[in-house]
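check this one:
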Amino acid sequence: MQSELTEKGRRFLAAAKTALETGGARTLVLSRPADPALVKWKCERRRDKEKILYVAETFLADGKDLQKNFRTFPEETLEKTLPLFFQADLIGASASAEYKRSKKGSEYLRLPAALTEPGGERAEIPSLSRQKNRLLDGSEPFLRELGVADREGRVLPSRQAKFRQICRFLEFLRDVLPALPETGPLTVYDLCCGKCYLSFAVYHYLANALGRDVSMLCVDRKRDMTDLCEAAARRLGFSGMRFLAADIRELPEGGRPDLVLSLHACDTATDTVLETAVRLGAAAILSTPCCQRELSRAVSCPPLSFALRHGVLSDKICASLTDALRVLYLEANGYETAAAELIDPDDTPKNVILRAVLKPNEKKKSAAAREYREACAFLGVLPRL
């Protein structure tokens, strides 16, 4: 394991020090640890009344989160910590820097001048004790049941990112409430539900916080998972939740869900979720895609070959193009659709959410369908419409 900083490592450290001290950057994140006991190291510049502090957090593989506050930039600590990780990202207001090191010792360094040059855009300094306006406070019983919070209602350090993800998803749910029936029972489908983090959160919010009559169907192909979640629902007294081990493509046409949701259905499973929601005529859809691989294998577009021949660039480009095609697909089926950021990319790169509300307009549907087919033809892929 490398124990000393290389010349490029020192250049990155010097840039991080300058950028954080002057406000050009807001966060420094070290990831891809060489030591399996580590997960991530993070440093943020925070304001504590009139003082500026540097808050350093070490995330350990056993779930613990160690925090230490520094009055000055923790240069000596970082000199010892940076060699323990293979990747470092410095996130600024208008640009980001990146340092990577392979196990064989090769290095990559990108340092945009905008991060350190005088007069550049400055990053906001969050308060050390900033108030979080969230729809959950951590004391909810379902969070304890899912292992997100402890018995005292405190969110576990290792589950903070999951808690933020759940809270943010509920904010998007709140945004689409006007598209759902104002009275009477609400029918909700969670497709490819997995461990049902969202199922329990959405059911709690609608049934307990808003007092609605909720009928929720959670579907996943893994019976052991649905059995596990069904037992948890019984313990919580969530009587309106039903669980089904099945292929979502085989759901009958009979019921029309008011809301379809899905969290990180992998690769083409997200397409199947969207197609099923459209087929069933869902009034609103909230879906977060994951692992978009299909397009990168199928795309044939000579004008983009200069970028697509590079693996990492191809993956990023194809992921964005896949979600853009999904937006067009939903619009062509009468949905007013938007792609937004679900959560801070520091927590997970899988941070896109597709929000769709059924508002049929034949003129817009025709235009979107035409644009969708043209986009597929340009990319050399077969349309799903």
Notes: The first strand starts at residue 25 and ends at 33. DSSP finds eleven helices and 14 strands in the chain.
